[in-house]
Amino acid sequence: YFRALENAGIHLNRPQIQAVRHGKGPLLTLAGAGCGKTTVLAARAGYLMAMRDVPASSILLVTFTSKAAAEMKLRIAGLPGVRPAAARAVQARTFHSFALAMLRHRGVQDEVFGETQAQHTVMKMMLRQLGLSEAFQPESLLSALSAWKAEGRSADELPETVREESDAKRAMLAYEAWKQERNKMDFDDILLRASALLRDPDVLQPLQRRFSHIMVDEFQDTNALQYEMVQRLAARHRNLMVVGDDDQTIYTFNGARQESILEFDKVYKDAKVITLDINYRSDARILGLGSNIVAKNVHRRSKRLSAAGREGLPPQFATPSGPEEEAGHIVTHLLGQVEEGRLRYRDIAILHRTASGSRSIFEQLIMRDVPFIQYGAGAVFYDQSLIRPLMDHLRLSLNPRRMESIPSTLGPLYVSREAGMEWIMREEKQQAKKYPLIHLSRWDRLRDFQREQVKERIRLIRSLTTMKPAYAIQEMRRIFYDKYLESGDTGAWTHYKETMQESLEELETAAKRFDTVEAFVSFADELSERHRQMESLRREEDSDAVRLMTIHRAKGLEFPCVYWIGASEGILPHSSALHSELPEDRRAGAAPTTAVDNDAALEEERRLAYVAVTRAKELLYITSPASNHGKPAAVSRFLLEAYGVIPEASKPEARRSSFGQPKGASGYSSRAGAGSPASGTATRVSSRPGPSSATARTTSSVAGSQAEPRINVPVWKCTDDACKAWMRR
Ligand code: ATP
Ligand code: MG
Which family does it belong to (predicted)? Predict the structure, then answer.
């Protein structure tokens, strides 16, 4: 069989073959990133069918995403001795699709309500009905609710110690009731209900008999409910194979439990453990950096990976002055690579830590006409539900009669958008006003305090034009959100508030670049317009476009070239993971010591850094902006720990490298040249430091170039025979 595999171009190494051929009983396959875990799973499914006569329909293969499940089926279909019908019959599914199939089989007809957009729409509707539209972001409430339910708890049990909590809880309960009344279920309901069903022996036993072989990919990110389901299903045959990398547990905020993989062979005492330690994905120095980073975690199984690949270019490093310069620098650099024919756009991924962390790079990509696809984000930053009302207040300050900007300002007034707008439009027909919003103050449905608020809001809108845009944002933030942000915190809400705070800080930072409200607003409008024009690009699966995504989204994927942005203290590690009792100098961004800090949150951040680095096959570029939201930020401790010293790039005398020498392109200048909309925009951006001076000062190769290896990253050579054979090919 393995010869046949080789003829088909798949040369497995010895432990990989061992895992594929494993006989009866539980099997844990532990491996670092890129060591062929997913590859082995597919090969084993083929082997079981071709060599052990296991019927395809008895194999259950669980993957993390539906895209991965579809790819898995394709891979299996391409294996020797697998008939197309058999490949189709293998149950390659996500936990959710498996659970759903089970519910359907038991006659549950409830409609799935899985599209994120549909959930948003309903949550938005609930918030509006409760008059809470502008107090909460639907996506944050949905994700808090989801994490809560992943632990097997219901929304009734959510805390409500402060007023905002009980407001949010009311919205969540309304959302849950809305679904129930209409016989609908969302993804979390599917899992909860399926796991409840599996406690019934009449449901469980036939499934246990059917699935003789169960395999789970990305096992390190299963949550309690999912793990329990797998354990029940596998209890009869006990042919449970899990593959994963404890160093890649990055979803604990969604209920993932690293213990499941760390303790698998304690729970299953007879489990065979096979370690795969040859990485076929990344060049040796990239892998060396990744391994060095994650080696500082205590809560892990230690591994020593070697790279099958050659020693290519060392990871390159730069410390731009801040995210704007970082973005400009990266776009210039990647355009250079594409123009010189070294890479296609689609070979490139840009990875960032948080959702709002992509704002600068997103703007640069758009304004400089780089085709790109942002995974997982629906809207331009300025159009997101939290930010939109603030921008609309600014728009109204320039033009109070801009009708399409009025609805989003009604939420903070606790006025229904539809009814409020209807009233305003009707009154406008009678008598047009300079500030159509003022009609509301004569609306009989309003209470006195609301009438007062309408007048105050108009005073605010009038005053905004004369303010500096950043100050205007601060003002509105104080009026609309501060009360909520300063209220008490309990576990379930912390994450939500952090995201909110971060988005608002990002908005303020963005506004600081502009001298007038007008310049800021027209920049945001142009951005939305250009983003709309890129729509067709986003619809094509395989378009030649740069991929922009969070590190979380990049899990399991690989790219020839990766830019990891925001490798600075406060960004990665994220500020939420840094101890509040840290001395001020360290929090504020002075270089941290190389002493290793290992609490759970910090370890998860370190794993994220590891995942980011190990997505790269040949080229890895890392940038550590020296400031974030106007505060100084030191180079990420993860880099310092890995290299043992402050990377050379952060010292003024550092050598120049190709990364960091922008070709004279400045700021938002467009590739389309003068006269394009972008060149007009460039003049509106204020106080933007010229990238060339700053980057020359700060850029170098961290891992040391061939000529002058200043910082030594251990690189391990491969010794395994199969690996050598692979290299000879
Ligand atoms: P991750 O931890 O990121 O999910 P993984 O362990 O699942 O990674 P794979 O995606 O299966 O790794 O493999 C990484 C890369 O190495 C793929 O491009 C795969 O084709 C290649 N690969 C895996 N095993 C071998 C092998 N024995 N010989 C050559 N290439 C291999
Ligand atoms: Mg994988």
Answer: Belongs to the helicase family. UvrD subfamily.
What is the CATH code for 2-107+192-276?
3.40.50.300
**352 phi, psi to nearest 5 deg:** -130, 165
Q: What sections of 282-355 are H helices per DSSP? A: 284-294, 323-339
Measured distance CA(309)–CA(278) in Å, rounded:
9
- Give the list of residues 6+ apart from residue 544 with CB closer than 8 angstroms, or none: 344, 345, 346, 371
**Of the candidates 247, 356, 351, the residue with the CA atom closest to the CA atom of residue 302:** 247
Do strands 278-279 and 306-307 pair parallel, antiparallel, or not at all (unpaired)? Answer: parallel
Closest atom of ligand 1 relative to the 611 alpha carbon:
3
Q: Are 569 and 637 in contact (CB under 8 A)?
A: yes
Would you list which residues are annotated within the binding site for ATP? 31-38
> Whose CA is closest to 315, among 715, 661, 604, 594?
715
Closest residue (by CA) to atom 31 of ligand 1? 280
Of ligand 1's listed atoms, the one at least distance from the Cα of 31 is 6
Pure H helices in 54-200: 66-77, 84-89, 95-105, 116-129, 138-150, 163-181, 187-197
Q: What is the ipTM of this complex?
A: 0.99
* Pocket residues: Cβ below 6 A from ligand 1: 11-13, 16, 31, 33-39, 245, 248, 280-281, 556, 558, 726
> Could you report the per-residue pLDDT of 200-252, keeping only the tens digit for each?
999 999 999 999 999 999 999 998 889 999 999 999 999 999 999 999 999 88
Pairing relationship of beta strands 627-628 and 631-632 according to DSSP bridges = antiparallel
- Quote the ligand 2 centre to 557 CA distance (angstroms): 7
CB 686 within 8 A of CB 515: yes
**Angle ∠(161,164,165) on CA atoms, nearest 5:** 45
3-class DSSP assignment, residue 577: helix
pLDDT digits over 612-638, tens only?
Answer: 999 999 999 999 999 998 899 998 999
Tell me which residue has its CA closest to atom 11 in ligand 1.
36
Q: Rounded to an integer, what distance in angstroms lies between the CA atom of residue 498 and that of residue 384? A: 16
CA 158 to ligand 2 centroid distance, Å: 35
E strand residue ranges, 194-265:
213-216, 240-244
Of 2, 30, 38, 217, the residue with max ligand 1 atoms within 8 A of its CB, to mutate for a pocket test, comes to 38
CATH (residue range 306-371+544-665+695-701): 3.40.50.300
At a CB cut-off of 8 Å and minimum separation 6, what does 719 contact?
A: 306
Q: How far is the CA of 239 from the centre of ligand 2 (A)?
A: 20
Min mean pLDDT across 101-105, 150-154, 282-286, 311-315 is at: 150-154
